[in-house]
Fold these 3 entries.
Entry 1:
Amino acid sequence: VQRLASGLFTETTGTPGFTQAIGASALNVSRTDARTFYDLPGAVRSFQGGGSASPLAEVAAFTPGFNFPSDWKAFLSAQYDLPFAWAEGVRVGVDIVGTKTNDGLYIRDTRAVPLVINGALARLPDGRIRYDSVNATAAQRAAAGVSSVSPNSSNRDLVFYNHDKGYAVVAALSLSKSFDFGLDLTGSYTYQNIKDFSSSLRFSSTQSSSYQSPAGIDPNEPAYGTSYEEIEHGFKFEASYARKFFGDLDTRATLFGERRNGRTTSFVMSDATTGRGPVFGVNRGSNHLLYVPQISGGGGASGLDYGPVTFADAATRDNFLRLVQQFGLSENQIQDKGVFKNDDINVLDLQISQQLPSLIASHKFRVVLDIQNVLNLLNDKWGIVDEYTDVTNVVSVACANAAGVAVAAGDFACPRYRYSNFNASAFNKNINTGRSLWTIQVGLRYEF
C-alpha cells in the first residue's frame, strides 16, 4: 500500500478489492496494544484474503512485541578556572557521556535448528553450538541418532529481536589558556569504553546485511564485545594565534594536532561450503569468530595437527602460525570480537585566515586556507591512515574425523576442524587513501 502525493492511497500489486478505506487503515494504524505489530486493522486482514507466502521463501520479520531501538543517555559537563597564581587563566574542562542500551536489536535465523544427536545438543570442536545442516538421508540420520530436523535450504527466516546489551562511556579532560598577545592553547585527552552486541547495523541497509555480523559462541547471533568504533585513547592539541596586522582586519593561524588509537579488528573463519554450510549450520557468510588452537605443543607426527585442528597443508599452517604471532592472538580459544587494535594515527591540520574589508564598514570578507593532513604534505609517508579491516576472514573450515580427514557427505561427526584456503590478504592493511592524502581548500566567507 502506497500513499500518493494527493493524499490518496494505491495498492501497488493490483490486488482486486482495494479501497481508500483499506489504504487509510493500513498506513494510519491507531495502536490499541502497547506491543508493536500486534494490532492489524480488520479491513487490512480482510483485504489479505487468507493468502500466505510459500513456507520455503525467505522471511524478514519483527518478533511480536518488538520495540524500536532506544538508549538511555546521561551527560555531565563542567568548567573551572584554576585559582592558583602559577595557573592564572587556565581553564579545566570535564565532559562525560554515558550511554546504556535500553532496547537494542539483533537478528536470528529462526529456521536454523540446533543439531541434536542421541538426545544431546551437538557441539563443534571449540565448544560452540552446532546447527543442523548436514545433507544426510533419513536412514543416515536414524543411524546417527539425530532427532533434529534440518531446514534443507539456504533460505532463512530472519527475525528481529530486542536486547539490552551494550554501553558506552566517553570521558574527556581539557585544559585551555588564552594569552593577551593573541595566542590560545587547548589540549585534551579523551577515553572511550564502548561495548555493543550487533556492530553490523552501522553499515547495513537490509535484513541480510544486518544478519552478517561476527558470531560468538552461538553462530546464529552476533557477538557482544568491543565496538568497531571504539578509540580507547585520544589526545588533541590546538594552538591558535590571532593579530590585527592591517588596521582592524583579523589575521589568524590555527594548528590542530591529534594522536589517537586505531580502531579494533576482528578475525573470523568461514564454512567451506557456501550458503547454509554443514559445519556451523547457518547462512551467515564468513562471519564466525576465529578459533586458534594450542600452538606451543607442536603439530604432532604429521606436523599439521594442533589441538582439535588439522591444517590441510603446510602453507595454510605456516601462514596461520604467522598470523597468530603477528597479531598476538590467544591460543586454545575463540578470539574475542575486536581482539586486535590498529596502530595509532597522527593527524595535523592547519588553517590560515585573513579578514578583508567590504563596502559596509561593519561587514567583512574572510579568506580561509585549510590544509588537511599537513604531515602528508611534508612527507608522503607520514599521516597515512592504514588499518586492518573491521572483520578479517582468515581460513575456511570443514569438519574432520579423528585422523584429520574431511568427513564425507551425510556424516555428522565433527571431532576436529580442518583449516584450508588461508586468506593471504589477511596480512594486508586497508589504506584509506581518501583520509590519508593531504588536501588544500581555499574558501571565502562573508561575515556580518
Entry 2:
Amino acid sequence: MKSLETTGGRVKWYAVYTSARAEKKVAERLNSIGVETYCPTREVIRQWSDRKVKVQEVLFKSYVFVRLKENELFRVFEVPGVVRFLYWLGKPAIIRDEEIYVIQTWLEGDEMEEVEVSGLEPGAELHLKKGIWKDQRAIVQEVGKNGVKLVLPQLGFVLKAKLSQLFYDTPH
C-alpha cells in the first residue's frame, strides 16, 4: 500500500462494494490499473477436518477502500467484481484518512494483557480507556462467551472484540 498522505486535499478514500468473496482479487486488479487500494485483512486459524490452517481473512466483507480524485471514480468500474460505491447522502461516501489510519493501527496493534470482565449487558455504555479506541464511547450490542460486539457511534461501525482485549470503564 502507498503512503496515506493527502496530496492537496484532492485525493480521497472511498469504499467500493464488491462481489462476494472477491475483495482481494478486486484490490489486486485495481492496483494493476494504478488505483491505490486498501483491503484490510487479519490472520485467523481455520479448523479443517484434518488440520488447522492460518488464512488471511478480509476484515470488511465485500468492501475495498480506494483512493482517487473525485473525477477519476469511474476507473474502478474497469475492473470485474466492482459492484458500486458505498453512498452517503446521494454521493460516494468519503472515508477520512484518520479512519483508514485507525484501522491500520488497530490491525498492527500489540496484544493486550488479559483483564477480568463481568457484568456487561447489551445497551450498557462504556468509555474505552486504552488502545487504539482510547477515549471512544461504545455501546454494548451483544455479549458472548469469548467476546463482545460494541457499537462505536462516533465512528459509525460495530467492533467485535475479544474480552481479553477490552479496557473500559462505565460512564458515571
Entry 3:
Amino acid sequence: MITQSAIAPLQNVSLVSAAISRAMSRPHGLPGIMAFYGPSGYGKSVAATYAYNKYQAYYIQCKSVWTKKYFLVNLLKEMGVQPAKSIPEMTDQAAQEIELSQRPLIIDEADFLVEKNMIEVVRDIYEMTGAAIILIGEEQLPAKLKKYERFHNRVLEWIQAQPVSVSEVQLLARIYAPEVTLHDNLIAQLMEVSRNVTRRVCVNLNLINETAKKEGWQEVDSSLWGKRELYTGQGTIRKGVSL
C-alpha cells in the first residue's frame, strides 16, 4: 500500500479519517457503519490508505471474482489469523479478532460484495462486534444497498467523495510537477480537461512536468502549453472520434 507520508492531505483523505473517528467515538446505541462513495478516480482508495495507517485499521480491497469464502479468507489473512474451513467458522474468527483488537475495518471496492449478495456477511460481523466499519465504493453504492434494508439501517453516515479543488491541484503540483511553476490559467485548463478527477489531474501534472523538463521550462501557462494534448481519460480510435 501507499505509505502515509506519501499521501497529500486532500479533502477526501480528511473525510475518510474523520468518518472513522466519528464511528469509533459514537455514542452508545448508534450504528457504526460508514459509507464513503463517489466516482472512480476521486482518490477514495488513497484516502482509505491514509486511514488504514492512522487508525491501524484492518483493510481489505474486494475483487470482482471473489466468493463469500474468499472474502473471509483474505480478511483473516489481513488479520494474521489462520482461516478455518467453513464460512460460519471464519465469520466467527473475524468477529472475534475485531472484538479483541477494537480496530476499525475498512472495506474498499465494497460494491462487489453488494453485487454478489455477500454484504450480509459484513452485517453479521458488525452485529457480533459493533465495530467501526467503513465501506468504500462507487457512486451507486447507496442505491445498491437500499435492497438490503437491515444493512442500510445500520449505516450511520453516507459520505460523498468530493472533486479535486484548485488549492488541491496546487498541492498535488508540488508532488507531481515539482520542477515547474504552473500558472493559474493552465491549472484551470487542466481541471476542465480532467473534469476535476484527482487521478487524471495527477496524470496531467506529471505530463506537464515531463514536458517542462524536455523543453527546459521553469514555468508554464496555457499559451506556452499551446495545442499540446492533456489527458482526458478517453481513448481515441481515430481523429475526432473518442471512445
